[in-house]
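S1.2 Input.
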Amino acid sequence: MSLLSNSISRRSVLAGAAAIVAAAPLTACGGSGEPAGSAAGSAAETQTLTVGASPSPHAVILNDYAAPLLAEQGIELTVEEYTDYIQPNRDTTNGTLDANYFQHINYLNNYNEENGTDLVNAGRIHFEPMAVFPGRSTDIENVAEGAMFGVPNDPTNEGRALLLLQELGLITLAEDAGITATPNDIVENPLSLEFSEQEAAALPRTVGDVDFAVINGNYAIDAGLELADAVAQEDAESEVIRDEYANVIVTTPELAEDERILALVGVLQTEDFKAYLEETFGGAAQPAF
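S1.3 Output.
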């Protein structure tokens, strides 16, 4: 082989080696072997948002409707389900949750007042009419003397239930009773009605043990009760009812303007969401924005 041929061969080998090096993927120092711009790099950019919610309709709305839309914005939504009205607020305050979605405005205000907290309403989403469901009796126009009514035992929802019974002409409350009324605030009870005060979540299970039960919309939906089966319900067109009892996204003051919270509220305040509510829940969950 001539010197020229040998020189050409050496150049070919070096060029081939350089090509191999150029084609090799770059890795970070101490690297995992993942190419730059790989799925691992993209995953690191995904934001997470953890929201506590009642099972239905709140968790259903978040999982089925909000989560796919937030994923398109690079936000991974995790939904933690709760069946009570206390722990979700505690977990939002202590940072276990970024936000929660289960309560209406009045409950939030009452909770803050009683617990010295400063949780904030980040956006009105939907409204669930409270309704009277039949138990041992079905005729709300001819309620028997001494009939037993199941009502929620938490402050704002018990008052809300009693206000509904007052609207039906069954009882009269003291003028200053308001939304925190209890049976002690009844000044006229011509039928000597009795009241079984229970946790709101328990009422659908015990409706057969009372003559009628006044049940929150979310627990009625979760138990498979149809609003059409109720014997009476709140006036869903009342501005007062919607303003007081709109279900809201709740978070801490520090996260009130967080882009993840704003994105969640944003996807739940659209015309498409209104259509979803009607298609999925009918009148049992109505837009409140």
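S1.4 Remarks. Residues 161 and 214 are 6 Å apart (CA to CA).
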